[in-house]
Amino acid sequence: TWKWVVGPMFLYLCERLVRFWRSQQKVVITKVVIHPFKTIELQMMKKGFRMEVGQYIFVKCPAVSKLEWHPFTLTSAPEEDYFSIHVRIVGDWTEGLFNACGCDKQEFQEAWKLPKIAVDGPFGTASEDVFSYETVMLVGAGIGVTPFASVLKSVWYKYCHDATNLKLKKIYFYWLCRDTHAFEWFADLLQSLEAQMQERNNAEFLSYNIYLTGWDESQATHFVVHHEEEKDVITGLKQKTLYGRPNWENEFKTIAGQHPGSRIGVFLCGPEGLADTLNKQSISNSEADPRGVHFIFNKENF
């Protein structure tokens, strides 16, 4: 038995030593941004840190807990000189991090007062393959939109500099959220990207659909009253917020009709139920003919 056990155990110990060494490297918090709906953004720097879109890291804050590591998706783009995560305050550990960063105080916090942070990673996910397709569907549910923040930021930077070598030609972006508050921290990025595409006469590059799934009668009435305005009253975007849940069968059939003979990447960060639905739609709407349209499903969740 020991012959079969010693090899894997040696590799495991090597991996743990590498992770311990990486976690001991100095991390500097350069900026803490408080977003609406109890969400904070930590912008950090670490020597030799390199990332790709959609990757995630493990974070430990000794001031909160000396043993707990928590995974967070990177929301910054590889083109930026820092890396960032968005943390929604939903439990004891995140509440402790919120307080340790001085977000519960009204006065300005000096950099030296910010807590020490240990970072392990980055680690790869399916979202890294986004730029391998000409057409992609990005589906985020709630805070699951974070990996696509990194993707859309990277697209924005590529368009600001040189988009001629960009294989990706069309993005269908879907964001499903229960309430309006979660839109607020992400809408600025969509507004910037929307303006950038219009300036370059390529407004068709990004097609986004935002669904408010937890709507009630009063919200629906407000939606009807303001529907004819140029910009959406919730997000400030030209694309109007939709109520309810998307009809995925119609969405897949429409996209398949617009891109015949293409390999379309479907990327999800969300719950298992939605993953099952999108996986079944990807299979049923893919053609048996190798020259036909094919949907390639990819998912991630924590």
From TrEMBL:
**Which cofactor(s) are needed, names only?**
FAD
Q: Looking at the UniProt record for this protein, which Gene Ontology cellular component terms does it annotate, in alphabetical order?
A: monoatomic ion channel complex; NADPH oxidase complex
Subcellular location(s) of the protein = Cell membrane
UniProt keyword terms in alphabetical order? Cell membrane, Electron transport, FAD, Flavoprotein, Glycoprotein, Heme, Ion channel, Ion transport, Iron, Isopeptide bond, Membrane, Metal-binding, NADP, Oxidoreductase, Phosphoprotein, Transmembrane, Transmembrane helix, Transport, Ubl conjugation, Voltage-gated channel
Principal subcellular localisation of the protein? membrane
UniProt-listed PROSITE patterns: FAD_FR
Q: Which reaction does it catalyse?
A: NADPH + 2 O2 = 2 superoxide + NADP(+) + H(+)
Q: Which CDD domains match?
A: NOX_Duox_like_FAD_NADP
Instruction: Cite the FAD-binding FR-type domain residue spans from the record.
Output: 19-129
From the Swiss-Prot or TrEMBL record, what is one GO molecular function term?
A: superoxide-generating NAD(P)H oxidase activity
Q: Which InterPro entries match?
A: Cyt_b245_heavy_chain, FAD-bd_8, FAD-bd_FR_type, Fe_red_NAD-bd_6, FNR_nucleotide-bd, RBOH/FRE, Riboflavin_synthase-like_b-brl
Keyword Ribonucleoprotein set for record: no
Membrane topology listed for this record: Multi-pass membrane protein
Can the keyword Magnesium be found in this entry's annotation? no
A GO biological process held by the record: superoxide anion generation
Q: What does this protein do?
A: Catalytic subunit of the phagocyte NADPH oxidase complex that mediates the transfer of electrons from cytosolic NADPH to O2 to produce the superoxide anion (O2(-)). In the activated complex, electrons are first transferred from NADPH to flavin adenine dinucleotide (FAD) and subsequently transferred via two heme molecules to molecular oxygen, producing superoxide through an outer-sphere reaction.
Q: Which PANTHER family match?
A: CYTOCHROME B-245 HEAVY CHAIN, NADPH OXIDASE
What is this protein identified as?
A: NADPH oxidase 2
Instruction: Please report the organism this UniProt entry assigns to the protein.
Output: Herpetotheres cachinnans
